[in-house]
Predict the structure.
Amino acid sequence: MAEKRRKDIKLISAILCILLIFLFTGCKNKKTEELNNRQVSPTPAAEQNSETMADKTESTLQKDDLESRHTDNNNDISDFTGEPQLEDFTVMDDHIIDYKFEISYEENADDYEITYTIHGEYDLNGDGNSESIDALLKAYGEDGSYLKVDGIEVPLYLSNPAGEIYIIDIDGKDKYKEIAVYDLGPSADPVFDFYRYDGSELAYLFSIDRGALMDGQGKFISSFHITIRFNPKFYSAWGEYKDGKYTITNKDISQYIGKTFEFDGMAYFVPMDEKPENYFEHVIWDYEAQKDFETTKIKLLDIHIDKDDPILNWFFVEMPDGEKGLLYFWIGD
Ligand SMILES: [Ca+2]
Ligand SMILES: [Ca+2]
């Protein structure tokens, strides 16, 4: 009896000790955090504000970004010199020029596919004279789609034309305005194909997903390279059309590890204690396996990124209740 009692006392004291340690370290962390919030640290924000990050709304973060740029400190997560600032980017619709082409269409009697005939006039090369622009957009598998500017014709290879083309200014620093041909893609993966007329040639420049953001200065961020569902958002790579080619540059995203973000909506969460060696061994795409999350704070413990294809979608996270696991989202087909 006495033996059991002694054991019980030992057990209780052990539990008490652990509790005290937890309480003590918890307080300490909180205190450090408060201090960090008050001081302007000279080091990048790697260890600070992990809780408060997610509390800020996007607009206050942007405001902070602006302020930090003016006060010349490097206290903000996305404020690395030479890297584009996310708040300089907006949806591509903001850069589409308000010009309406004349569009007519015809339904093919055999297969009900639609052929679009498009005409317009616009000064594409900035010489003060409008060019005559024509396009014929045929359905997938049919030859004969083309884009023509002042008699110069290039063939178009479209999966599923939306029947629309636009004038867009991808870079305000030059005198050109580009033509964006809207292709809905083979399976709902819409893109813009950009073409430029420089006065003598009509050239295809590059294509980008319709959901990409752009800064109007030649830079783009693909929607696959941005954490669209996180608050605050961050990105893994940006692209730039420069000197005749489109180049993608990766960004160092290790600075976001250890930080807390908010997300909500449909997501996959696969519980596991340790970060996986190979994320893709654990990935399931069963639509039903997704869960609908209310606004949830997650701590990023690891991010899987392929430097050759920096899709930002694979996260090892800690949930508010301490459960760890792989978090990812449904992305295009
Ligand atoms: Ca012109
Ligand atoms: Ca331009």
Notes: The chain has two domains: 51-84+252-333, 93-214. The first helix runs from residue 2 to 38. The helical segments are 2-38, 52-55, 58-71. Confidence is low (pLDDT under 50) at residues 16-80.
